[in-house]
Amino acid sequence: MQVIVCGAGQVGFNIASQLANEANDVTVIDTDPDRIRRITESIDVKGLVGFAAHPPVLQQAGAEDADMIIAVTYADEVNMIACQVAHSLFNVPTKIARVRHQAYLEPAWRNMFSRDHLPIDVIISPEVEVASAIIRRLEVPGALDVIPMADDSVRAIAVRCMPDCPVLDTPLEELTELFPDLKIFVVGIVRDDELIVPTGKTEMRDGDEVYFIADTAHVRRSMAAFGHEEAEARRVIIVGGGNIGLYIARELEADHPEVRCKLIELDEVRAREVADALSKTTVLLGDALERELLEEANVAQTETVVAVTNDDEVNILSSLLAKRLGAGWAITLVNSTSYGPLVGQLGVDAVVNPRGSTVSTILQHVRRGRIRGVYSVREGAGEFIEAEALETSNISGKRIRDIRLPKGILIGSVIRDGEVIVPDGDTQIKAHDRVVLFTNADLIKKVEKLFSVSLEFF
Q1: Sign of dihedral through CA atoms 26, 30, 33, 34?
Q2: Which of 124, 156, 173 is a domain's end point?
Q3: How many domains does the chain have?
Q4: Helix, strand or coil, per DSSP, at residue 75
């Protein structure tokens, strides 16, 4: 597949890297020569310095033969015009654009992105993706990440094993015996910053970050099995009244009326705008790094603090201060990869990376065939993939043990006629089954080769 990526920032770099690793022909456009040099020296892609919306630049990038354009520059308008030019002049089949400004995304103007106006097939909003990811974490107390799959019949969940975790030092193959009524399957363990796809003999240790797939109806009991029985948040403090903070507050007001929410915003003009846009949320003007303001917000009685300002340092420090003053749980927005390995050690509970959320959403639309969902974890180290088996699949009717999956790929759940099946070696894959699997990033090529005919993943 020939793909043009407009923008060599963090999102563009990650998308280009993953696509290049899967043997796609990728060309990256950016106005910054240093970024182009860095990306071409790091990964196997072509680089082009230029303005992504200019027709000659797109032509030079191979737009006439491109299968897809992914526009993720920092300017919404450049992304939109690049897609328009790619459609009108070069007839590029698939066009994906990142659009950050919420004014473009209001329901009244959504028709603007139709084929008769701005022909963009997929609109990605990082702010909406991040806010949705945070709300999912709020709904499952104690979770580091929550990923709905198969129409939310199952969820992939990440938790950290604490010293009191009841299943520490227990081989994973014994989990079914310990919890026969729970439909859970552990598919990944992060230990010492290394992602491991486990076997039945693998044991969980204190400090491990564990990814498991669970029947959505069993999520609370599944969390308890890992020692997480935190109370659902009834009092929430949001630090930052930007697009993300405002979106979260609106969603809580609309869908979780039982939650008492307070929002802290430093800028007076923005604070007034946010207060006018919300009906039930208390908006406080001031600096979330000031102890007195957090105490005024009653942080000691708050179950969850959500820090989503535009400043990583403010988010991290305000989260740590809130926890020191008695807050139960901190969800923190962190853009920089430099802080990734440190924030957990400092005491931040759950970190949300907007780049990861955006990349996962884009990958879902990049994959071809019977793909239903993709979610990238740990900076692209692994992926959850959901697909549908076909009548013509050569694995239909076969037991999982006979499929001979490469080591590092696990089928974590099979959904058949609405029923969630925790698979074992004797489980048969049937036509129309929804299959959720987890794979190491370096095995995605093998996943493609293994399932290109049988599941038509790609």
Answers
A1: negative
A2: 124
A3: 4
A4: coil
- CATH number of the domain where residue 309 is located: 3.40.50.720
At residue 244, φ and ψ (nearest 5 deg) are -70, -50
CATH classification at residue 178: 3.30.70.1450
Per-residue pLDDT for the chain (458 aa), expressed as one digit of tens each? 899 999 999 889 988 988 888 788 999 999 999 999 999 999 999 999 999 999 999 999 999 999 999 999 999 999 999 999 999 999 999 999 999 887 888 777 777 887 778 889 989 888 888 999 999 999 999 999 999 998 899 999 999 999 999 999 999 988 888 888 888 999 999 998 888 899 889 999 999 999 999 999 999 999 999 999 888 889 999 999 999 999 999 999 999 999 999 999 999 999 999 999 999 999 999 999 999 999 999 999 999 999 999 999 999 999 999 999 999 999 999 987 777 667 777 788 999 988 777 887 787 777 655 667 788 887 777 889 888 887 776 677 889 899 888 888 899 999 999 899 999 889 998 888 899 989 887 777 666 655 554 444 44
Instruction: Please indicate, yes or no, if residue 456 is contained in any of the structural domains.
Output: no
Domain end among 305, 332, 352: 352
Instruction: Report H helices in 43-168.
Output: 55-60, 76-88, 126-139
Residue 371 three-state SS: strand
* Domain annotation covers residue 230: no
Domain region containing 212? 130-225
